[in-house]
C-alpha cells in the first residue's frame, strides 16, 4: 500500500462493534466474529494510505460512538 | 557476577540510614548508569520513564500484585516497607511531585507500610484497593485512584501525560521503588556488582509449583539477574525429574521446557525462548499434570478476568479458552488447534490494554512448547498421569 | 405576498415534520447496528444526519417566512421564548420549544467531537421529547377546517415513530444481529 500521513486508531473503550467503519474502509478494515473492526494488515493502528484518507475521515465521522480517530503517523500510542 | 544463589539486598533487613535527596539530573544520571529496569512486569528502563514524565507529576507506587502467581510485593511490604516509601520519597523530591500514592492490592496487608507512613509523617497516601488481574494495569489503576472503576483507558492518552487528577502520572512497581531506594544510597557501581551487564541487580522471584511435590519449598527469593533457572529450582528443592515445564513471568508469560534449565533469568538470557523475567514469577508444572488442561484453566481464568470493556477481549478470550479446553480433551478434533491459532491472532492488539496480547502470548507458548502433547491429544492419548494440577 | 409566505411557512413546516420523523426512525435503526433498506450501517447514519439537517434548514425557513407574514403575528421573542405568542399561544409555544430543543441538539451534534460521547448521547436523548413536541405543534398550529391531509400525514408519521419505538423497546433490538457478550461501558 502507498504511504500515508495518518494512522487509524480505534478507541476500544468506546467501540461497540457498530460496523460503519468497516463498511466505509473495506480496504483497511474487516469485522471479526462479533462485529468489531479488525485491521487487515494486523497492525494495531494501520497507516492510512493517502488515497484513502478522505474515506477514513468519512469513517471517523460515521462512528456513532466517536471511537475512531485519525492520528498523525508520528504519534504512536504508548503501550 | 555472583557465586551465591541468593543475594540479600531488599530482603537484608538492614537499616540503610536517611533517605538521600537527589536532584532530577542526579537521579537521571544514576538510573542511566545503573541500568535499573522495572520489576513490575514490563521491564521498562526506569530512566526512560523518569525522562518522559511531565512537570509536577503524581507518583503512584504499584503494589497491587494483581498477578495471581506473584507474592513478592506482599513480602516486600511486610519485610521492607520502608524501602518502598524511600523510593517514593526520592522520586517525589527529584520530580517535585504533587502527590504520592501507594496502591496496595487486596491480597496484601497495608498495616506495616501504614505504620511506617505514620512514624515518618510521610505524605504518601496508602490506598488499599480491591480488583482483579487487570486492576494493576497502569491506566486502570489511575482510573480507580480517581474514583472510577478499574477500567483501562485508551493508550492514545498515556497516563504520563494525563493520569490521576488529570496530571502527568508516574506509576512505578513497589519492588522497583525499593531497588531505587538502595541504588540511591550505594550507587550504580554497587548496583551493577551483581547481575549481568545488560540486566544488572537483583530481583524478587515468586516460586510456586502446581503441586507440593514439585516445589516443596515455595516462596519468594531474591536472586541476582542472570541466575540460571535450574539453580533457583534446586534451591526450592524441586526434584527435577518430577517437573515438566516452568512458566516464567506470570500468567502472561512463557513456558520453558526442562531442556532450558540453564537459561539465565535475565532479559537477554530468556529472549531466545521468547520469554522475559516479567514480574519474577516461576511456576513449575508437575510432570503428572496435563499441560493442556492446565493451560486451558489459566486461559479460562484470564478470560474471566477481562475488565469487560473491550469487545474483542470480552468475546475473544472466552472463545479462545473454550477452544483450548476442548482441545485439551483427548480425542479432540484437529481443526481445534487451527482455531486456537486463529483466535490468538484475532485478539492480539485489539483492546485498550495488553491483557488480550498477554493471554495470546501465553496460549501461543502453550501450543509451541507442548506441541508434542497436542499431537498426542489429537491421536486420542494424554501422557500425563493425573488430573491437571 | 402574504398568502405566499403563509403557504411557504406551512409547507416547510409539514416537510420538516416528515424529515424529523425520518430522522428519529433512522436514528433508532442506526442504534440497532443493523443495516436497513440496503443503506448499509453507514448509510442509515448519513441519511439520518441529512434528514436532520434538512429538517433544521426547513424549520429556519418556516420560522423566517412566518416572521414576515403579518397573519402569523410572530415576534422575535416568540422564536426563542415559548408561550408568549398571540396566535394560538399554546401550540405556538410548543413550536418555540421544539426550536429551542432543536438548536441544542443540532449544536451539540455538530460539536460532538469536542463535547465527547457522554454529553453527546445525553443531549441526544432530548430528541425523544423534541419529536412529540414538534408533532403537537404541527397539529395544534397547522390544522384548520380543510386539513384532513395534514392529519393523515401526521398519523402516518406517528405510526412510523411508534413502530420504531416499539422495536427499540423489544428484547430482540439489542442483539444487533450478532451473538456476543455485552460490554461494560465506561463512557
Would you write up a description of this structure?
The complex is a heterotrimer of chains A (79), B (389) and C (187). By secondary structure, chain A is an alpha+beta fold. Helices cover 19% and strands 23% of the residues of chain A. Chain A is built from 2 helices and 5 strands, in the order E-H-E-E-E-H-E. In chain A, the strands form 2 sheets. Chain A has a 3-stranded antiparallel beta sheet with strand order 4-1-5, with helices on one face. Chain A has a two-stranded antiparallel sheet with strand order 2-3. The longest helix of chain A is centred in the last third of the chain and has 10 residues, at 53-62. Chain A is globular. Chain B has 3 domains: 10-191, NADH-ubiquinone oxidoreductase 51kDa subunit (Rossmann fold); 202-286, Ubiquitin-like (UB roll), CATH 3.10.20; 291-378, NADH-ubiquinone oxidoreductase 51kDa subunit, iron-sulphur binding domain (de novo design (two linked rop proteins)). Chain B contains 14 helices and 9 strands. A 5-stranded mixed beta sheet of chain B has the order 6-5-9-7-8, with helices on one face. Chain B is globular and about 65 Å long. Chain C is mainly α and 187 residues long. Chain C has one domain (2-175). Chain C is built from 7 helices and no strands. Chain C has helices spanning 2-31, 40-68, 76-80, 89-110, 112-124, 127-142, 148-169. In chain C, helix 1 runs antiparallel to helix 6 (127-142) and helix 1 (2-31) packs parallel to helix 7. Chain C starts with a helix and ends in an 18-residue tail after the last helix. The chains are: A alpha+beta (79), B alpha/beta (389), C mainly alpha (187). The A-B interface holds A 9-17, 32-36, 38-39, 42-44, 69, 71, 75, 77-79 and B 151-156, 158, 160, 309-312, 315-316, 319, 345-346, 349-352, 354.
Quick one: how many beta strands of chain A? 5
C-alpha Rg of chain A, in Å?
11 Å
The top-level CATH class of chain A is Alpha Beta
Quaternary state reads heterotrimer
How many structural units, i.e. domains of chain A? 1
- Largest interface chains and counts: A-B, 25 and 22 residues
CATH architecture of chain A: 2-Layer Sandwich
Mean pLDDT of chain A: 90
**CATH topology assignment of chain A:** Alpha-Beta Plaits
Distance between the termini of chain A: 25 Å
What's the total count of β strands of chain C? 0
Kindly provide the radius of gyration of chain C, computed on alpha-carbon positions and rounded to a whole number of angstroms: 18 Å
Amino acid at each position: 500500500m502507498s504511504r500515508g500521513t495518518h494512522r487509524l486508531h480505534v478507541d476500544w473503550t468506546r467501540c461497540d462493534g457498530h460496523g460503519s467503519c468497516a463498511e466505509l474502509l473495506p480496504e483497511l478494515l474487516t469485522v471479526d466474529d462479533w462485529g468489531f473492526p479488525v485491521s487487515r494488515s494486523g497492525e494495531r493502528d494501520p497507516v492510512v494510505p493517502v488515497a484513502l484518507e478522505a474515506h477514513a475521515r468519512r469513517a471517523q465521522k460515521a462512528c456513532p460512538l466517536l471511537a475512531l480517530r485519525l492520528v498523525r503517523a508520528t504519534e504512536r500510542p504508548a503501550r | 557476577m555472583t557465586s551465591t544463589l541468593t543475594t540479600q539486598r531488599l530482603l537484608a533487613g538492614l537499616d540503610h540510614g536517611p533517605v538521600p535527596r537527589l536532584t532530577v539530573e542526579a537521579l537521571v544520571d544514576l538510573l542511566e548508569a545503573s541500568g535499573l529496569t522495572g520489576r513490575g512486569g514490563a521491564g521498562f528502563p526506569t530512566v526512560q520513564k523518569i525522562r518522559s514524565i511531565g512537570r509536577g507529576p503524581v507518583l503512584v507506587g504499584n503494589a497491587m500484585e494483581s498477578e495471581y502467581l506473584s507474592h513478592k510485593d506482599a513480602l516486600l511490604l511486610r519485610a521492607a516497607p520502608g524501602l518502598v516509601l524511600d523510593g517514593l520519597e526520592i522520586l517525589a523530591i527529584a520530580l517535585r511531585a504533587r502527590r504520592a500514592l501507594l496502591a496496595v492490592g487486596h491480597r496484601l496487608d497495608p498495616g506495616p507500610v501504614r505504620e511506617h507512613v505514620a512514624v515518618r509523617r510521610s505524605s504518601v497516601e496508602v490506598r488499599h484497593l480491591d480488583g482483579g488481574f487487570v486492576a494493576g494495569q497502569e491506566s486502570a489503576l489511575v482510573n480507580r485512584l480517581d474514583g472510577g472503576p478499574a477500567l483501562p483507558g485508551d493508550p492514545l492518552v498515556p497516563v504520563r501525560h494525563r493520569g490521576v487528577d488529570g496530571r502527568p502520572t508516574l506509576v512505578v512497581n513497589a519492588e522497583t521503588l525499593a531497588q531505587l531506594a538502595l541504588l540511591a544510597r550505594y550507587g550504580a557501581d554497587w548496583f551493577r556488582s551483581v547481575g549481568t551487564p545488560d540486566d544488572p541487580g537483583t530481583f524478587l522471584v515468586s516460586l510456586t509449583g502446581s503441586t507440593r511435590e514439585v516445589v516443596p519449598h515455595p516462596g519468594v527469593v531474591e536472586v541476582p539477574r542472570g541466575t540460571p533457572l535450574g539453580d533457583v529450582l534446586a534451591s526450592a528443592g524441586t526434584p527435577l525429574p518430577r517437573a515438566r515445564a516452568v512458566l516464567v513471568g506470570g500468567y502472561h508469560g512463557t513456558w520453558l521446557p526442562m531442556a532450558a534449565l540453564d537459561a539465565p533469568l535475565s532479559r537477554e538470557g530468556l529472549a531466545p525462548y521468547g520469554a522475559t523475567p516479567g514480574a519474577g514469577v516461576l511456576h513449575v508444572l508437575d510432570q503428572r499434570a496435563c499441560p493442556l488442561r492446565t493451560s486451558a484453566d489459566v486461559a479460562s481464568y484470564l478470560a474471566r478476568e477481562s475488565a469487560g470493556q473491550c469487545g474483542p477481549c470480552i468475546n475473544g478470550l472466552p472463545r479462545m479458552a473454550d477452544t483450548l479446553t476442548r482441545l485439551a480433551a483427548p480425542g479432540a478434533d484437529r481443526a481445534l488447534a487451527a482455531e486456537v491459532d486463529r483466535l490468538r491472532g484475532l485478539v492480539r492488539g485489539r483492546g485498550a490494554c495488553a491483557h488480550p496480547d498477554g493471554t495470546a502470548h501465553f496460549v501461543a507458548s502453550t501450543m509451541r512448547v507442548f506441541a508434542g502433547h497436542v499431537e498426542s491429544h489429537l491421536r486420542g492419548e494424554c501422557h500425563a498421569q493425573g488430573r491437571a494440577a | 405576498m402574504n398568502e405566499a409566505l403563509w403557504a411557504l411557512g406551512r409547507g416547510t413546516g409539514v416537510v420538516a415534520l416528515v424529515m424529523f420523523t425520518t430522522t428519529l426512525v433512522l436514528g433508532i435503526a442506526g442504534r440497532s447496528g443493523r443495516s436497513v433498506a440496503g443503506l448499509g450501517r453507514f448509510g442509515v447514519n448519513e441519511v439520518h444526519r441529512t434528514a436532520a439537517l434538512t429538517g433544521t434548514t426547513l424549520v429556519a425557513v418556516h420560522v423566517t417566512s412566518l416572521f414576515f407574514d403579518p397573519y402569523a403575528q410572530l415576534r422575535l421573542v416568540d422564536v426563542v421564548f415559548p408561550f408568549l405568542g398571540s396566535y394560538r399561544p399554546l401550540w405556538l409555544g410548543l413550536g418555540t420549544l421544539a426550536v429551542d430543543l432543536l438548536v441544542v441538539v443540532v449544536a451539540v451534534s455538530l460539536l460532538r467531537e469536542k463535547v465527547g460521547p457522554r454529553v453527546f448521547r445525553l443531549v441526544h436523548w432530548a430528541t425523544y421529547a423534541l419529536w412529540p413536541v414538534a408533532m403537537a405543534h404541527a397539529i395544534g398550529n397547522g390544522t384548520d377546517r380543510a386539513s384532513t391531509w395534514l392529519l393523515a400525514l401526521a398519523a402516518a408519521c406517528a405510526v412510523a415513530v411508534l413502530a420504531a419505538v416499539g422495536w427499540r423497546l423489544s428484547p430482540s433490538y439489542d442483539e444487533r444481529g450478532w451473538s456476543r457478550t455485552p460490554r461494560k461501558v465506561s463512557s
